[in-house]
Design goal:
Blueprint (H helix, E strand, L loop, with lengths): L1 H14 L3 H8 L7 H10 L3 H24 L4 E2 L2 E2 L1 H5 L1 H19 L4 H24 L7 H26 L4 H25 L2 H4 L5 H4 L5 H9 L2 H10 L6 H14 L1 H22 L3 H11 L4
Antiparallel strand pairs: 1-2
The structure holds farnesyl diphosphate and magnesium ion.
């Protein structure tokens, strides 16, 4: 079924009738297509459903193209990012093309689906701006972090599940809650992997988030556990390129303080709630998607 989504995206790109865009798109690694998977599992594989899944994946791909420019990220999915290969201007414009074509196609689905998805794109843009602004100082406020990841990541998964529920004539609330929890947990685990996984496996430099100024949940918790001296040291390393020994100091503190487990447990609570919701509806394959997310190594 995912194949039909890939073919639909290719068709949308071909319709742009631009050789450069077709060849640039061909160089983009596809990723897990998690949002498309959710949509298909909730709503089946009618033409409107496949189109919606293709649109959401195009918007998601666009947001990552822009995000890599914003984050100065030169790798994506263990490969050179498009901005690394062709520069920021090309990456930004391919992003603009993908999401505006996505929006154009969204008009052909339904007003309700279009509202659901476009509202999420507003949220995801607001979330990305918040991420940038927050990274200018050492954020110690967990609620602000949670709101930011809701907007930046969970809003599009929430809307994907909600749009699919609309298309399938299912009630939207629990599916949206499922998508939201999945998105929140996904970002929390992504943030954990930045600390726990070595640079080679991760496909991007380790502790890249902290170097970029992002204090994700484990940093917020770590700061709370530290004495004044260590708090001062941690703050002094924020947003800077770290030496080997500074990275090691942070990683050791993360491991010995138990904040990694604490953050992971929080993501797990969200996943468990999502699983209970879907089990109640007899949506076993949606429960399995949630389960697989929490089983990722951290
Ligand atoms: C990845 O976060 C970023 C997002 C999920 C959202 C990015 C959104 C925008 C750039 C807004 C513009 C939107 C459009 C449609 C053009 P991350 O940096 O924490 O994750 P990463 O580790 O995958 O880079
Ligand atoms: Mg990024």
């Amino acid at each position: 079924m995912l194949n039909a989504v890939e073919r639909k995206i290719e068709q949308f790109i071909t319709e742009l009738d631009d050789k450069e865009v077709i060849s640039l798109y061909a160089k983009l690694p596809h990723g897990k297509r998690l949002r498309a998977k959710l949509i298909l599992k909730i709503a089946g594989s009618s033409l409107a459903v496949v189109k919606t899944a293709a649109i959401v994946e195009m918007i998601h791909a666009a947001s990552l193209l822009h995000d890599d420019v914003i984050d100065d990220a030169y790798t994506r999915r263990s490969q050179p990012s498009l901005n690394a290969l062709y520069g920021n201007k090309t990456a930004i414009m391919l992003g603009d093309i993908l999401y505006s074509k996505g929006f154009l196609e969204l008009n052909n689905i339904s007003i309700e689906v279009a509202k659901m998805v476009s509202n999420a794109v507003v949220q995801l843009s607001l979330g990305e701006l918040k991420d940038v602004s927050l990274s200018k100082k050492f954020n110690t406020d967990k609620e602000i972090y949670l709101k930011m990841i809701y907007q930046k990541t969970a809003s599009l998964m929430e809307a994907s599940a909600g749009a699919a529920a609309l298309l399938a004539d299912k009630e939207t609330q629990s599916y949206m809650r499922y998508g939201k929890n999945l998105g929140m947990a996904f970002q929390m685990i992504d943030d954990l992997l930045d600390i726990t996984v070595d640079a080679k496996t991760l496909g991007k430099p380790a502790l890249h988030d902290f170097v970029e100024g992002k204090t994700t949940l484990p940093y917020i918790y770590l700061y709370e556990t530290m004495n004044e001296r260590d708090k001062h040291t941690l703050k002094s390393l924020h947003g800077k390129i770290l030496s080997e020994s500074e990275s090691l100091w942070i990683k050791k503190a993360m491991h010995s303080s138990g904040v990694l487990q604490k953050s992971y447990a929080e993501a797990k609570v969200l996943i468990e709630e999502a699983i209970v919701l879907m089990n109640k509806k007899g949506e076993k394959s949606l429960s399995s998607i949630a389960m697989a997310m929490i089983e990722r190594e951290f």
